[in-house]
Batch of 4 targets.
Target 1
Amino acid sequence: MELVLVTIGESPKATRPHWLRAPAPVGDNYRELKSLIDSMGLHTVCESAACPNVGDCWNRRIATFMILGNVCTRRCGFCAVQKGAPLEVDYDEPRRVAEASAAMGLRYAVVTSVNRDDRKDGGAELFALTIQAIRERIPGCQVEVLIPDFQGSREALEIVMAARPDVLNHNTETVPRLYRQVRLGARYERSLELLAAAKDIAPESPTKSGLMLGLGETAQEVLAVMRDLRAHRVDILTLGQYLRPSPRHLPIVRYISPAEFDELRHAGRQMGFRHVEAGPLVRSSFHASDAVAQFR
């Protein structure tokens, strides 16, 4: 497995391979979910981040809710979510997420958010309220949360963990060398510390993290991050191909083949990850309930 080392500022002519195709966002379930989410004034990372799996997931009646508005306070070079002045916090949002989850028939809900660096708790309170609202509305429903780094606040993390999410997910996204270009405002070590702290607070609760590949990282760098995640007791790993949302975003340096993803999956299992989801179209919440079922 050899990934080329290319400076992220370069723009090699990477042609999308024939095997990288996602189902179109069409179908009765897709239209029904879009109508439901729009009518309830909710946001999903599926639409806001231009996820390639929106057609597949929504036709299976699965969506990842995005709370705390759809405007992010950070300007990451890979992300399609709108940037700028954040919206007012909507304290009715947890109830609406729970109602939408019930209408969708969810038994496993995934909730994420934009970065809210304008708030002292980074939005942790609303994560906790959303977990509670889903559990009250759908007893027995599992809840996975994909959280920001809360600027390293242990207090904010404790607020979320006190609500007992079934899975605590926080993405490292890329290798340390590329952080300044890819994750503006984030720090690699801070992300690792957050994941370790979640395990300190609730050792029995699964933790999860993910990386995008194809931004110019080397195989050795990817494997080093995977080893760091295991050293910080992360249980579940996702690895997917970076896909450029628009010409304004970072270029794709390289497409990673399915065979290379298979090798990384195998390497991850050898390192001790309880579950590794790896493939060109894998995203943080891709087949999330399946991963936890295998973990259990």
Target 2
Amino acid sequence: MKHVLISDPSLRDGNHAVRHKLTAKQIAAYCIAADAAGIPIVEVGHGNGIGASSLQLGEAACDDETTLKTARENLKNSKLGIHVIPGFATIKKDLKMAIDLGVDVIRVASHCTEADVTQSHIEFARKEDKIVYGVLMMSHMASKQVLLEEARKMESYGAQGIIIMDSSGNYLPSDVKERIDTLVKGLTVPVGFHAHNNLGMAIANSIAALESGAEILDGCARGFGAGAGNAQLEVLVAVLHRMGYETGINFYKLLDASDVAEKQLMEVLPSISSLSVVSGLAGVFSGFMKPVSRIAEKYNLDPRDIFFELGKRKIVAGQEDFIMEVAKDLSLKSGKNV
């Protein structure tokens, strides 16, 4: 049977959906269930990765050390994964701590045109004999050729696979096929795909990636993730099994894990709201949903206008400060008091 490697970032991307407030108790409960289901990789941490807890990005309820220790204690078979963005995560403090605490898989991420910043982190993690993937975020903002050039940089640094993220849920299957096909043909390492569901295409896009040669797919329990959520893991695995792919996951126990996520992790189930659609069309990071809504209300603005303006300015994750700047500019243009 054909095999697909599944990585589950419910405890990382899902943190965006609850303002990074997942507790150690919640992390433990989901890790136990995910491990029982045989999910190959369980990724944990602040929504923006280790080292990202801050006033600007949101303070996590559970610090990195506690999060990693809790996950490690409760993952007996599943590999423990983390998301690392250079600039938020340092090598000496954050990455070394994670390695010392027993992390297995390290994903080093950058904006899709800035792979250069990942070199030191990738090389350090590889020297520590960890599984290391390079991640290109907001990948819809680069052409297929630029993505290949950036991915080749990560490969040259030692990345053992390259994952592209549809961070704003902007892709259609044709977009995914074009990019994944280019990467598969141009790289010697496996290629993966991380989908968001703003336009309702997360499962379709994941399958398009698979059929174009991707070997690694991300999915979250009940779609738990930023904005409209991610590819819904239990649906994704069901579709893959029906297509004849092997994931190594016990389907019944995966359904149980998804029930745990819904009952114990989530405030509300992910859904495609009007703003989610606008975010996807505008090509803006899904994690901006809550701050855009809050700031729009503060300035008596239409949040849709903020999203489209953010899209025009090509604002990306980590540039949350620009939401306020855009709101102030729109207020001045409309004649409203700032």
Target 3
Amino acid sequence: MSFELHDLSALDQLGQLRRGEISPRELADHYLDRIERLDGGLGAFVTVTPERARERAAEVEGLPRALPLWGLPLGDKDLWRRAGVPTRFGSRLMADNVPDESDELVRVLDEAGAVSLGKTNTPEFGLPSYTEPLANPPARVPYDTTLGAGGSSGGAAVAVAAGLLPVAPGSDGGGSIRIPAASTGLVGLKPSRGRVPAGAGFDSLGGFVVPGPIARSVADAALLLDAMVDGGAYAWSTEAPAWDGGAYLNAAVRGEGRFQLGVTTDSPWSLAYDIRLEDEPRSALDLAIRELDALGHGIEELTLQPEEGYRSAFTTIWQAGASAIPIGDEALDRVEPLTAWLIRRGREVAGSEVVRALRWVAQYERRLITQLASYDAVLTPALAMTPRPIGWYDSEDAEENFAQQCRFTPYTSFVNATGLPAIVLPVARTEVGIPLAVQLIGRPGGEHVLLAIGAQLERRLKWQRVHPPQW
């Protein structure tokens, strides 16, 4: 049977690179060609840098092949600065922004041997959970391009799902890795707060935002996570250590263990909004429960305590974080309505109110971790609905827009608020082939358990073999 390079897993592509069966330049050219042919109707990339990519591939040839991502193509989310490459943050206001310096995570991935092909699509300043910025075409679900891919790492997810990249880094402040991964049939992992040193989460208000991997398989996600966690260490030596697979890749490949799992469909948003779990996401959850039970895991229903203060605290922190975006009040009529609403409200919030919200979230973190302490992981739906049509979100009424986002994805943001790790796994499809996913939430520092369980499910369901029409 013949195959193309993108048919291989990222791990297998890396193996071919290291054995000299393909070169970094050949692999970069393969993906650059696919981006040129296929991305016009998908919205994965906002900037493609073919000449820089080829120069970088030639540079990588002279680096140690033991580097964790040696020669593997990636894309930079357009919220991360790369020196000399336009970084527009999904905003028309930043159309001419070309940074002089690269962000730390970009440097870490470079040090790990990756080859950047350009910038992936993101909503304005990464604030919404969908990727339909006015500055760029929307990021579309490859299985049905009338549907939005979610956000804010929507472009990264579309690129991996359509075979325009082998894996991609994303960032997650309220579900921004997990939402698009679930929408496009991928594995998306939000690490524990502090797990990835570059962008550890401590720099964002409340420590909500962390970087993590998006991939077609659990092992590929673990491969990228290992590089994100450890890649910066290579700056401390002139020769990279032997790379036989990091701790997370080993956990994903072995996929061992039987665990006690809680299952819940509760959300802290339910006291503020009418949260309704649609039948199709519910069916995916039921399938995952059956499969995990068949694998020998303990399964127990879990009811979470209602949290009346969640909406106020989370919204206050989200708005206060947006208020720090360096835009003068006089320029707010040039950004999108949701962005302007978040920034204005954030600048109206008193400092004492932000402190109270942060204190509430810190106490909520302790309460939730205590509730989950008897479980190795907790299973939830990934999303409450199937992916939404392009244009579904209210573009003028910002408060209704925010409420729509909470109703679509009520199970993700509380994981950011509490700093826990979580993974989404694409367990099923609708009758017309749209991806359906579930979420596993781990204990603090429990990424290895999530990867092991994910690997076990993947062996049974083989989701990594399912591809969209563009493949």
Target 4
Amino acid sequence: MKKQEFIGILETEFNVGTHTFNTETVLTEIPDWDSMSILIIMSLVDEHFGVAITADDFTKIGTIADLFNKIGDAHFE
């Protein structure tokens, strides 16, 4: 999967317009961000990449780029 494809999945899941998010998007600035948002991202990452991310990891994950770093480049085309 390409990074832009996963960004598209996030945009759909968070019900925002296409091309709203990019790698510099700050997760806590996503509209209606709450603890459920973290669970959604954890689930999506596990489902699409088989990578387990914990709630504690989000203390170091601030942007979508940080999320991609946590997932690891080996998981992207």
